[in-house]
Amino acid sequence: MTRDGDKPAPETDRHAGSGATDIITTIRLASPKLPASQQRIAQLVLDDPDSILRTNVEVLAEQVGVSAPTIIRFARSVGCEGVRDLKLKLAAALALGTPHLHRSLRPGDQTEAIVGNLIGSTIAAIAEWQKLVDPAVIEQVATAFNQARRIDCFGTGATSHFMAQDLQARLFRLGLTANAFSDAHFQLVSASSMTSRDVVVAISYVGRMPTLLEAVKLARERGATVVAMTRAGTPLAGLARWVLPLDVPDDATMRVGTDAYIAQFILVEILTVATGLRRDPAVIRRLGQIYRDLQTRSVDSDAVSGLAANNWQTIFGQSG
Cys staple from 170: which of 108, 215, 272, 319, with CB 3.0 to 4.6 Å? Predict the structure, then answer.
C-alpha cells in the first residue's frame, strides 16, 4: 500500500514510454487495472485530453476529487516520469493525430505491435462498452419479443442490414414470427401494418438515417414497441422505448468500425440467448434438432449427406 491508501500501480506495458503505443492508448488499456481514484483521472484524460494540457495539477485534482500526489502517481502508472512528462506525451499524441488505419497504430509500428495493439484496443473498448449494457433492459426486450405477434428488424446500410438479417434468423429459429427489411419501401410497408402487439428492432450505429427514422416514426404511430440498437443521443435513440447502446470509440477509417461490429454481434447473441431462455423447453429441444438436420442434410455440412454426395457424383460424372 502507498502512503495515502492507493493500491500499488500495476505494471504498465513495456512499450508504454517507447513510442510503440501512444499515451492515450496506454491510458485506455491501463485504466481497468488502476485504483478507482486513478480510473477517474484516466477517464477525464480520455474524455478531454486537450483540457489536461491547460490545467495545472491542483485544479485537475479538484476536478476529479483526488489529491495532487494521486495525479502524480497516475502519471507514473501509465509510464510517465511525472505530470509534465504526461502532458508532453499527450501533446505529442494529439499533434500526431489519428492515423487513417487505426487509432492504436503509429507510423513505423512493427507487426508485433500491430497484433498486440489492435487486439488490446478492441478488448479494452468492449470491456468499457459492457458497462453500458443494462441487464434490466435486455430482460424487458426479451420479454417483449416472446409476447410479440411479430418482430420486424430494420437495418439500413451494409452492417445494419446484415445484423437485422442475423437477428431475424435467430428469432425465427426460436419459433418467433420475425422479418428483416433493409429496403426503405418495405420498411414503411412493415411499419404501416404494425399494431400494439408488434415490435420493431431498428439497427443503426449512425442513428440518423432519414428513411429509417421515418419508418420507425410510423411504427410508433401504429402502436408498435420500438427497440433501437444505436448510440445514445442519436435521433433513433430518441424514438425508442428501449435503447441497446453501441457507444464505442470512433473508427479512424470506417463509419462503422470493428468495435461497433463486435458490439452489435454480442448484442444479437445476448438477445437471442435471453429470449430463448424464456421460451418453452420444447423450443430448445427443437434447436438441437435443427442443428442435427443441418449437420446431416445440408450440402455444406461437416458430414456430407448421401443426397449431396449423389448430386456431386452426377455433376462431375463420377460413379460410386
Answer: 272
